[in-house]
Write a structure and sequence with these properties.
Elements lengths: L10 H6 L2 E10 L2 E5 L5 E9 L2 E5 L8 E4 L3 E5 L5 E5 L6 E9 L6 H5 L4 E4 L6 H12 L6 H22 L10 H5 L2 H12 L7 H8 L3 H12 L3 H18 L4 H8 L4 H12 L3 H8 L10
Antiparallel strand pairs: 1-8, 2-7, 3-6, 3-8, 4-5, 4-7, 6-9
Length: 295
C-alpha cells in the first residue's frame, strides 16, 4: 500500500529528529568482528560481495544466527551486539556506518523499527545508484570523501525508510509510527501533527484531515499506531520538548511553540510523563553519552 505521492511522510520527522551516519569501515572483513551495543547508536552494514554468518546474543525478535549469502543490507536501529563471522581466506567486501539517533532510544524512528532489518539489495528499487556512489567514495581517497560517504549512507537510510513505509509486512514492522504512516488516511493526519504540533488538535479535526469519520479514525489509529490519537500527540509534543531542551531553548518558548497556555502547563505535563521537571531533565542530559546528542 502506498500513500499519495503528495504526502511527504518523512521530511518533517527527520527535520525535527536528526539521524546521522558515520562511515567507519570499508573493505574486506576476516575472522570474527564484534560490534558492541552502545546507548543511542545503531549500525548500518552493506555487504557488497561474499557471504558470512551473523550471530546475536539471545534476544526476543532476533535470530541467534543468520546466513547472508547475497548482497544485502543489515540495519540495527537500536543497540544490539552482533558478530560477523568471515572465512579469512575469502573475506567479504563491506561498508559499515554507525547510525546516531538524536535522543538515543527515545528517537521516534528508533522506537518504531524492529531490532534488525535484513534486506537483499535487489529488493529496494533505486538503491543501486546510491550504493555505486557510496562504494566509489570508499575505494579512493579524495578531498571530503569521508564526509560525502557519511551523507551517502544517510541517503541510503532514507531510501530504506521509504521502502519500509510501503512494505511493512515484508519486514514485519511492529505496530507504531511507521505502520501508521504506511496508510494514506492516517499518514495525512500524522504528517499534519508532525508539521503543526502547536495547533489545537481535537479528534474531530484529526479525523477531518484523514478524511474519515471520528469513530473510524480513532479505531484505525489505535490499531495501526498502537495508541490513541490524543496520546500520540502528547508523546510527539513531549519528544519535541525534549529535543528543544537539549538545544537550550527556554521552557516558555517551547510552551508557546507547542500550544500550551504557559510554561507551567508544559512543566506539569513534562513532570507527570517523565518523572522530573524540564530543568532537572536538562541537567541530567548534560551527562548523557555523546551518541545521544548530534552536532
Amino acid at each position: 500500500m502506498q500513500a499519495s505521492a503528495s504526502i511527504d511522510r518523512l521530511s518533517s520527522l527527520l527535520e525535527r529528529f536528526r539521524v546521522r551516519a558515520h562511515l567507519f569501515h570499508a573493505g574486506p572483513l576476516c575472522g570474527v568482528t564484534t560490534y558492541a551495543a552502545e546507548p543511542g547508536r545503531g549500525f548500518l552494514h552493506v555487504l557488497r560481495r561474499g557471504d558470512m554468518v551473523v550471530t546475536h546474543s539471545p534476544r526476543k525478535g532476533v535470530p541467534r544466527r543468520i546466513v547472508v549469502n547475497e548482497p544485502s543490507l543489515l540495519f540495527y536501529p537500536r543497540p544490539l551486539e552482533h558478530q560477523f563471522h568471515n572465512a579469512p581466506s575469502e573475506g567479504s567486501d563491506f561498508v559499515c556506518a554507525t547510525v546516531d539517533f538524536e535522543g538515543g532510544d527515545a528517537h521516534p524512528l528508533a522506537r518504531a523499527l524492529p531490532p534488525l532489518i535484513r534486506l537483499p539489495l535487489r529488493e529496494v528499487p533505486g538503491l543501486e545508484a546510491s550504493l555505486s556512489l557510496l562504494f566509489a567514495e570508499t575505494t579512493q581517497v579524495l578531498c571530503g570523501h569521508r564526509l560525502l560517504a557519511d551523507r551517502l549512507f544517510e541517503v541510503v537510510l532514507i531510501q530504506l525508510l521509504r521502502w519500509l513505509l510501503d512494505h511493512p509486512q515484508e519486514v514485519e514492522l511492529p505496530v507504531g509510527l511507521l505502520t501508521g504512516l504506511g496508510e494514506p488516511p492516517l499518514a495525512r493526519a500524522l504528517v499534519a501533527l508532525h508539521e503543526r504540533p502547536g495547533d489545537p488538535w481535537p479528534l474531530d479535526e484529526m479525523a477531518r484531515v484523514a478524511g474519515m469519520s471520528r469513530s473510524a479514525f480513532a479505531a484505525r489509529f489505535k490499531s495501526r499506531v498502537g495508541t490513541t490519537p490524543a496520546n500520540y500527540l502528547a508523546a510527539w509534543r513531549l519528544a519535541i520538548a525534549q529535543a528543544r531542551l537539549r538545544d537550550g531553548t527556554p521552557v516558555k518558548a517551547i510552551a508557546d511553540e507547542l500550544g500550551y497556555a504557559n510554561a507551567s502547563a508544559l512543566s506539569r505535563l513534562f513532570t507527570q510523563k517523565v518523572g522530573m521537571s524540564p530543568r532537572e531533565w536538562r541537567n541530567q542530559e548534560a551527562f548523557i553519552p555523546p551518541a545521544h546528542r548530534l552536532p
